[in-house]
Amino acid sequence: MTHFTDVQPLHIVPLECVKPFKVNLAPRLALCRMELIEKMYQDLGLDNSGFITENVMTFCTQALKHHSGSVREVAERIIISLYKAVGEPVKSYLPPDDDKTRKNTLYRQLFEAFDKIDGKPSKQELKKQQASEESNKAAEIEALQAQLQQLKDMGASVKPPGDTAGKNTGKGNLKSNQKDKKKAPAKKVAPKGVKKPTKASEEDDTSTLFNIDKTCIFCGEKDNAFTEEGLDIHYWKSCPMLKRCANCKQVVEIASLSDHLTTECDSKADFAKCPRCTEALPKSEYDQHIKDKTCNPAETSKSHCPLCHENHTQGEEEWKTHLMGKTGCKHNPRRIAHLNKQPTGAKGKGVGKPVGVKAKGIR
What we know:
The chain is mostly helical. It has 14 helices and six strands. The strands form three sheets. The chain has a two-stranded antiparallel ribbon. A two-stranded antiparallel ribbon has the order 3-4. Helix 2 runs parallel beside helix 4, helix 3 packs antiparallel against helix 4 (69-86) and helix 4 (69-86) packs parallel to helix 6. It is elongated. 23% of the residues are buried.
């Protein structure tokens, strides 16, 4: 009847059908009314049909209180269809969307359907995602702490070579080298014509050792925050001469990254070195890389950067200029952060590399 040409413009049938029924109406009669409204809404929609958000929602919210599950299910379907058409106004006829309301299975299903329509994850999915992120974060922190503890244990167990004072051996522990310096023989006969060191000069030596301890031996940055723990954090996060290996999570010198990936890394079996550019490549990409021959060839008289693939002059200072300078390596993410820092002191010299940092001598 609603489709009759003379009846449809009057909207008599839809307006009569959406009058709310009592919650104690017989289930079969209530279900017939619900299915009739659902079918009419699907056919007519909201445009010039007699159906509006207010009368449909008033009808459906009353139906949600019916004791028959079949009646409530049809009411849910109508509400969800209406939400797809008009969106947020539907929620104003329902209880507030909070944890207390979502304890009710009926409303939880409705609000989760709304979230799905809006492209949002459900609150249950958000909780799982948050729990997963917290678990991953805790696992990463635990792994970092374990590695730092391993570095400290290695530093305590390694004995430096005999006389390393003032030399960069690349193997000793900074703290161990300082202890050796401080444990120098107490009495030593001075040659003729050479004055014995005064108390003031001994204090200067102690001060110098203290200052060295505050200096990064890779980039030369000096900072009062560079305690033993502070230096560890600097190595892990910000030193522009170093990089965390994406595979084994160890800190390595950028200058020896390719060697690390092919000889030291836990995943070294997955890498191969290109004979043309000398860079380490995943074996899955190696054959195509060799076939293309588009890499920048390494030069025997120069060093080759594994980040930007450019060649530059050999030498420790040249590596620093390339990895830290204003016009240096554009692919070193730590370089800009280092340049933006306010200089706090001169570059450190002549200190051994810390134990646990997988770095070979700079070429």
